[in-house]
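step: validate -> pass
step: tokenize input -> pass
step: predict -> running
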Amino acid sequence: MKSAVLTDWNPEDSQSWDSKIAWRTLAITTYSMIMAFCVWFLVSAIAPKLNDIGFHLSKGQLYWLTSMPGLSCGLIRLAYMFLPPLVGTRKLVGYSSLLYAIPMLGWFMAVQNPNTSYGVLLALAFACGIGGGSFSGYMPSTGYFFPKRLQGTALGIQAGIGNLGMSVIQLVGPLLMGFSLFGMTWVAPQSGSSGSIYVHNAAIFFVPWTIVAAILAFTLLKDVPVKANIRQQLDIFSNSNTWVMTAMYVMTFGIFSGFAAQFALIINQHYGKDSAFACMEGLPAGASYAFLGPLIGSLVRFAWGPLCDKFGGAIWTFVSAVGMAVTLGWAALFLEPKDLGQFPIFLTAMLLMFFFSGIGNAGTFKQMPMIMPKRQAGGAIGFTAAVASLGPFIVGVALSSMSASLWFWLCAAYCVACAALCWIRYARPGAPFPG
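step: predict -> pass
step: emit ->
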């Protein structure tokens, strides 16, 4: 379709750039990304409720269940990183939006029967990775529409607001489970500890909105003439900055997404219904706090985009690394609590960790377009995002195989190493790659 392709498009030349098209593209793709992240974190909203409605899943099985979207997301992102120059923005966003409905419909059916096998649940959790996987196509694609001077702001808006989908599903999900939705009285509620519960609502509610995203994409988005085959795109791996920035983004987004996905279970296992305090009243419910981490991290990522454009991304990535190291160590001290009074201290440490991760997520995405050629920067963004998206899987597996406090200390040590690397290579005065 000829009218869907922009010609003579050059964001660095004001005569060959249309800001209205750029910002419209950002708005539609960001809306679709919100839906995408709702899909990606759907399991983290549903998993804490499964045993309440008749499933019989162990602690390890629940951690693995919430880990699977992270594993599949990382694999899917490795494919999506090559798609923007191959298929264009319009088809990429349109078809992806339609795909999001598939795992939602699957979970809608599965949770209505507590005899659904664990293997089926794992497969559906794996399918949810499509939501996070598309990120590695959306972000480079959006970068084609903006000049370098605005990329920190534009990518910060898209990633920050898009990431809010993680918080939206964790906040809205429990609310939706409390009543019959869309007049679907033909779907019987399950019986939970506090009465009737409609777990299937969290899965079906967003399906119509993904269809709206697809319609907007196919009717209003354009493609830019940035073309490269897969072999040409592999040149990102010869640039050392690809690998170093991957390490940085694993620190920021990998840890952020990993702990965001497991936040409700961590609270339940150490302070809530599955902890040593289980016989006490007034226990914190993980599902009530799970949305806070991704909400804070996403809003900070959005807000810090303009600051990264003004001061550069490197210094903020360094600040993030130091802050995350301190707060992760602080939280580790309260993972073997003596009383429930320690919960507010643990919660504060975790929320501050999410705050600093948001700063780093904004910083790293400002750095890559500044220190790498335009097309390489797009590919590098896709690759680093693919690796970092394994965070929910890695964190889930780690928490199921070692003590939580040990894992927190290991993450803190990794942040210290990244802080040193960032300072030497990017942030210090006279650094070889200031960004």
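step: describe -> The longest strand covers residues 190-192.
step: cleanup -> pass
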